[in-house]
Amino acid sequence: MEYDLQALNIKYAMDAFGGPIWSMAASPSGSQLLVGCEDGSVKLFQITPDKIQFERNFDRQKSRILSLSWHPSGTHIAAGSIDYISVFDVKSGSAVHKMIVDRQYMGVSKRKCIVWGVAFLSDGTIISVDSAGKVQFWDSAT
Questions:
Q1: Where would I find the H helices in 33-135?
Q2: Are 68 and 24 within 8 A, CB to CB?
Q3: How far is CA 77 from CA 61, 97, 104, 109, 123, in A?
Q4: How does pLDDT run across 120-136, given as a tens digit for each residue?
Q5: 97, burial (CB in 10 Å: exposed 0-12, middle 13-18, buried 19+)
Q6: Distances in Å between the alpha carbon of 29 and those of 40, 41, 62, 71, 141?
Q7: pTM for this structure?
Q8: How many Å apart are CA 2 and CA 20, to the nearest integer?
Q9: What is the maximal distance between C-alpha atoms in the chain?
Q10: One GO BP annotation here (predicted)?
Q11: Buried residues in 7-35 as b, exposed as e (16+ CB within 10 A)
Q12: Is the domain 2-136 a CATH 2.130.10.10 member?
């Protein structure tokens, strides 16, 4: 939904067609919007002055997309899910890297590790925070 902040009402609404939306991130230029959905899809929308318009889907992942972050250049995104982080090429919409997170917490293996947040830095480093209480730094190139 987009809200008109002057009139304090809904300007328009649209469906993401991926079930509940878990995460959203605007591009560095502010002209595009990523949406992470329950069905494992990442959807790209174009933002115009009049509306938000669906552009395309990225490669679907195994589980819901809980966190998203754009690389500052706008060429790649990081998507946090359950047990892994995916890196996508924005131009192709394809996953180019997948990083499996460590499930251990205090020496005990947990069933699932939820990646609640990701941040993509300009040098290619991805920072993740997860349900195991860990902050991890990843090299997205390797």
A1: none
A2: yes
A3: 14, 11, 26, 28, 13
A4: 999 999 999 999 888 99
A5: middle
A6: 25, 22, 29, 11, 23
A7: 0.89
A8: 16
A9: 54
A10: maturation of SSU-rRNA from tricistronic rRNA transcript (SSU-rRNA, 5.8S rRNA, LSU-rRNA)
A11: eeeeeeeeebebeeebbebebeeeebbbb
A12: yes
